[in-house]
Amino acid sequence: MICADTNCIIAYLAGDDGSDVEFLDKLLERKVIALPPVVVAELLSDPALPREAEMLIRSLPELTIGNGYWQRAGKLRAKLAQRGFSARLADTLVAQSCIDHKAPLLTRDKGFRRFVRIAGLDLL
To answer: Which secondary structure element, helix H or strand E, spans residue 104, and what is its range?
Structure first.
């Protein structure tokens, strides 16, 4: 299973160009995409989200949140801060979900590179 970040899904839904959008399209066809819960929340927060887009988002599997998730996410964010990196809470939650499930993350956000160095997140 591969996870998609909010920015990739938005780019896909907007019909943007890019290798990540093409890759996401192939992954969707193969049904190997899952979404971290915070990505679902971010996507469904758009009041102008077309119904077809909402149906697609709701059809995709969501990663589960296991026991200790919130504590691990908090400690991960603290670990980043100790090393001089700042991280948005939503990005930390996405990264922790992927780390917990050993799932690579497809994203356009270069800020996730700090999670690779600090916590072993696998990026595509």
So the answer is: none
